[in-house]
Amino acid sequence: MRAPAFNIATYARLLQECIDTKALAQGKAIHGHIAKSGFDSYIFLCNRLLYMYAKCSALADATRVFQNMHLRDVFSWTSIITGYANCGFMDDARQLFDKMPEPNDVSWNAIIAGYARNGYCSGALEQYGQMQQAGIKPTRFTFATVVSVCTRLAAVEVGKQLHAHIVMNGLGLNSFVGSALVDMYAKCGSIDDARLVFDEMSERDNVTWTAMIAGYGQDGNGLEALKLFRQMQLAGEKPNQLTYATILSGCACKICFQQGIQVYALVIKNGYVSNLFVLSGIVNLYSKCGGLSDARQLFDIMSERDVVLWNAMITGYAHNGYFEEGLKLFVQMQMAGAKPDDVSFTGVLNCWATLAALDGGKQVHGLILRSGFDANVSVGSSLIDMYVKCASIEEANRVFQEMPERNVISWNAMIGGYALNGNGKEALQLFERMVLEAAKPNDSTFVSVLSACKYAGLVDEGRHYFSSMSQDYHIMPRLDHYACFIDLLARAGHLNEATDIVDSMPFEPNAIVWGGLLGACRSYGNIELGERAAEALFELEQDSATPYVLLSQIYATAGRWDDAAKVRRTMKERGVRKEAGCSWIEVKNRAYAFEAEESSHL
């Protein structure tokens, strides 16, 4: 017997209100009323109930409704799959998906989004591939999800392939998909590609403008970020709290500080001054522009603080070299009841890494495990970096091997760790494994690879990789790649080849290049090249004693005592002093620095 349409519609409207407000208790009451009225056999209402329970994370209730349904449609299956995925039970969600008779694009999107939301980035990309094999056409939502996965993995090459798929599928760059692409390119360091996508978009919303502004800020181009911020307002797009926080962080450099203060005035004018997210941007602005005390004063007067604000202040201390203050604030943050997130952990791990304080880093590692952030790619990469800088390469490797997902940053951290600790061959073996596992190396990867060759004296391998990066991977060498390669050659005694590269490379050599050559000239007694390198360093690093000391040692080794004495006199006349030696020790989770003949710690 057909139920009156009015009653079904009324129940559906009431359930929708419960869904919108996540009112679980009221939803259960309506469920009871539906059961008593005999309407619980109607698939439409059962689907509403199922969706309501899934939205409220009441998985047991959702499962009961699903199991008691005599008829199920695509919506029923998708709702229960989404419910399990939202609660983190991806194995159960996958089993249900595999049992589903005929999944449609919405169902595929649900399982892909579930993998992405729970941090299984490779799983999300794998499901995207299977979706295509099943003949289901991806939607804009599909592409926005998988592009965001590439952002997390820093997998710009995969992102470019997805960009091509978007074009081939005839999906225009609307604000949803376009914003995801802009964000992906910007966060992967391809700022020019981000701007190309931005300029091609026929429609842009607040998210799009903010993503592009953030990209310029992350790229260190605060002036361009400010220019785009003004264009955004001229285009009639009103900045929101995220935009203001983003542009304030983008202005966090000395050249843009005054413009940042002007943005602060706009924040006050538009009523965002009490917004915690915007305040974190203001704290970031002051702390990175020499106003650390102002940032702390602003932080202290806030009666309410969220994790973003705590993170901004901790990062501010670390940026200014006050690592112990940052660590103290991290402890205060937990005592205040604020739960650390991935940004908190990466920030505090950076403090321990810089202090080379292994015990403190291990304690944070334990907290990460208890907090459930051990599967986070950014946190895992920071753990590797911390162990590497504390010379605990085995622990770093253990973290790396146990990571469920790795991005290019994770690979780079481990390869660089092997290189830094003198394990050159292991670094190169890991790089080859990276390539075999289809992880795309970037320019930073090759800095680590060339460093590994340098420290291990692997000249032939260094030549191969320096050539391969442009020929095989289409990555043009930067100055730091040239610096590593030149230093490798110089250390091995190939000074003529190193000099030829210095003279032919498309960059002006910096202090690192000349410093490496000068050190090699001391080892191999090359006076002529040593004089050239030292003269360049006298101009580039006028307050550094190193080139004077090294050049005088070169002369002394060659028996040219008068020239050695002349260099020492010139150094004294110019007021250049050699820095005192410094050592670090860790006592009770605190790092102490000792300079030569210092007694302040006694």
Strand content: under 5%
Order the strands across the largest sheet as they lie in space.
1-2
Could you tell me the mean pLDDT? 89
Number of helices: 34
Structural class: mainly alpha
Q: What is the terminal separation in angstroms?
A: 92 Å
The major β-sheet equals:
2 strands, antiparallel
**What spatial form do the alpha-carbon principal axes imply?**
elongated
Total number of strands: 2
Return residue spans where pLDDT drops below 50 for at least 5 consecutive residues. Answer: none
- In helices, the fraction of residues equals over 70%
Roughly how many Å is the radius of gyration? 29 Å
Summarize the model shown.
This protein has 602 residues and is an all-alpha fold. It is 71% helix and 2% strand. It has a two-stranded antiparallel ribbon.
Topology, pairings included?
Elements: H1 5-21, H2 24-37, H3 43-55, H4 59-68, H5 74-86, H6 90-99, H7 105-117, H8 121-133, H9 140-153, H10 156-168, H11 175-187, H12 191-200, H13 206-218, H14 222-234, H15 241-250, H16 257-269, H17 276-287, H18 292-301, H19 307-319, H20 323-335, H21 342-355, H22 358-371, H23 377-389, H24 393-402, H25 408-420, H26 424-436, H27 443-456, H28 459-471, H29 479-491, H30 495-504, H31 511-524, H32 527-540, H33 546-557, H34 561-573, E1 582-587, E2 590-595
Antiparallel strand pairs: 1-2
